[in-house]
Amino acid sequence: MSRQRTAAAEGMATCHDCHLLVAIPGGDDHGAKCPRCHSALHFRKPASLQRTWALLVAAVVLYIPANTYPIMRVTSLGRSQADTILSGVVHLLEGGMWPLALVVFVASIVVPLAKLFAIVHLLISVQRRSPKKPVERTKLYRLTEMFGRWSMVDIYVVAMLAALVQLGSLAQVEAELGAVFFGATVVLTMIAAESFDPRLIWDRRGPERPHRPPSARGAAEGRKPGRDAKTAHVRKAHG
Amino acid sequence: MAARAWTGAHDGPPHLVACHDCDLLIELPPLADGAAARCPRCQYVIGRGAHETIERTVALTVAALILFVAANAFPLLTMRASGNETEATILSGSRILWDQDNGGLAALVLLTTFVAPLAHALAMLYVLVPLGFGLRAPAAADVFRWMGHVRVWSMAEVFVLGVLVSLVKLADMAEIVPGIALWALGLLIPTLTAAMATLDPDEVWDRLDRSVEMDADPVEAPRAPEAVRPDGEAAP
Ligand SMILES: [Zn+2]
Ligand SMILES: [Zn+2]
Predict the structure, then answer these.
(1) Is A220 part of a structural domain of the chain?
(2) CB within 8 Å: A153 and B162
(3) pLDDT exceeds 90 at position B56
(4) Which of A157, A167, A235 shows the shortest C-beta gap to B165?
(5) Average pLDDT, stretch B195-223?
(6) CA–CA distances in Å: residue B6 to residues A3, A228, B3, B230
(7) Does residue A222 register a pLDDT over 60?
(8) What is the reported pLDDT for A19?
(9) Which domain holds residue B26?
(10) Residue A65 backbone class (left: φ over 0; alpha: ψ -120 to 50; beta: rest)
C-alpha cells in the first residue's frame, strides 16, 4: 500500500468534466485549463468542504418547514384536509396501505435524513482527517449520490394527484408550501453531494499537493530520462 | 477484471488514469466489451469496455427518444369518478402546479421529467451522430461537457415510482386506468440505462479531439500545440 501513488501527489489532476488525466507543471492548479475540454482543472474540487457545509446547512434549515408545513391539501365535498409528509404516511397506514406507506416513508423520510447524516459524517470525518474505514466512507458517499434523487417521489405524487383530481367543487388536490421547501431540500442536498470531493477521504494529511514538479522528482530518484514515461504520455495543461 | 495500481514498475505504453473517488493512479488495461475495471483501493468503476460505443449509443438514444415522444403523446393515468374523466400526461403535473401559482415546484417537475431527459437525448445525438462520420458538430465539446451535468437532473425512473404511488393511492377512491405513456416510460428506463452503459465518454472525448470541425477546412485540424496523445504519438 505504501507504494500507491495518487495523481495529486504526482502533480496530475483529473479533469472534472472529461476525466482526462493532465500533468500540471509546477504543481499550481490556479488557472489551469483542460487541453481536451477546456474546463478549469483542480487537484481537488475548490473549497469543497466549505461549499458542502453551506449547502448542507441550508438544506437542514429548509428541511424543518418541509416537514412542519403541509405538502398538499385535499378538498373534497367542501371538506378540506392538509397533510404533512408524516401525516400522509400515517393516513396511508390507517387506510391499510402499508406497502405504499413504506415506499413513501423510505423515499420522503429515511432517504433525506440518511443523506443529511451521511454528508455530515463525511464532512466531519474528513475535517478530523480520520484514517478509519476509507473504503466504507467512499461507498457511503456513492450511495448518497445514488439514492438522494429518490426523495423526489413525493413531489411527483403531489403533482400527479393535483393533475388528476380536478373535479371542480367535488374534489381538488393542491400543492402546499411544505412541498416547495421539501423540493428545495432535495435539490440542495443533491448539489451538496456533488460539491463534496470523495478524494478528501483519502487525503490523510489534508489536500495533497505535489512536493516537487514531477520531472524534478523523477531525476531526484535517479531514473533514466527515457523511462519516466508515466508523466511523458500525460498531457500538459494549458497555462 | 481488476486494474493494477501503479507501482512504477511497468514498462510499455500504459493508459494511466486516476480514480475519480480516491485519486489513485491506475494503469488501465484495454477492456473487453462489457467488462468493468474497478479501483483496487476504493472499488470505484474506473472504466467500462464499451465497444462500438457511438453506433450502439446512438441506436439506443433514438429508441429512447421515440419512447419519450410516446410517453408524452399519450395519457399516463386516466381517472374516472362521478361521471367525470381526467387524464394526466407527463406535462400536466407541472402545468397544474403552475396554475396553482406554484412556479418553483412546476419548474422543478418540468426540469426533471421533461427538459433534462429531452435535452440529454438531443444533445447526445447532436454530438454522436456527426462523430460517427468523423465530424465534430459546432460546439460539440461544450455540448458534451454540459450533457454530463444535465444527466443528474433527469429523473424518469423516480417519476415512474411517483406515478405508481399515485395510481395505488387513488385506486381506493376512483377508477384509475394506466395509459400507454406509463408503459412507454416503463420501457424508457431500461433503454436509458442501456444507453448510458454503452457510452464510453473517454472514447467520445478522444474522437472529438481527432474529428474535423464541420464546415471547417479539413486540412487544418486545430490542435493545442503542447498536447500529446495519450498513446505517445505526436499530434498531427
Ligand atoms: Zn477536460
Ligand atoms: Zn479509487
Answers:
(1) no
(2) yes
(3) yes
(4) A157
(5) 74
(6) 8, 13, 9, 16
(7) no
(8) 87
(9) 1-51
(10) alpha
Q: What is the mean pLDDT of chain B?
A: 83
B226 in a domain, yes or no? Answer: no
B125 shares its domain with B161: yes
pLDDT tens-place string over residues A114-167 = 999 999 999 999 998 888 889 999 999 999 999 989 999 999 999 999 999 887
User: Do the Cβ atoms of A138 and B22 come within 8 Å?
Assistant: yes
- Domain co-membership, B91 together with B189: yes
B91/B158 same-domain check: yes
B97 touches chain A (CB under 8 A): yes
CA distance A150 to chain B (A): 6
The stretches of A44-152 forming alpha helices (DSSP H) are 48-68, 85-94, 98-105, 111-127, 134-147
Alpha-carbon distances of B159 from A150, A207, B5, rounded to whole Å: 9, 39, 40
* Count of A-B CB contacts under 8 Å: 226
- Domain of A87 in residue numbering reads as 47-203
Nearest to A183 among B76, B81, B104 (CB): B104
The answer to whether the CB atoms of A199 and B22 lie below 8 A apart is: yes
ipTM of the complex: 0.83
Cα separation, A63 vs A57, in Å, equals 10
Q: Is there a domain that residue B153 lies in?
A: yes
Residues A117, A140, single domain; the answer is yes
For the entire predicted model, the pTM comes to 0.83
B109-126 pLDDT, tens digit per residue, is 999 999 999 999 999 999
Residues A124 and A189 in one domain: yes
Of A59, A102, A190, the C-alpha closest to B112 is A190
What percent of chain B stands above pLDDT 70? Answer: 85
Closest partner CB to A35 (pick from B20, B102, B224): B224
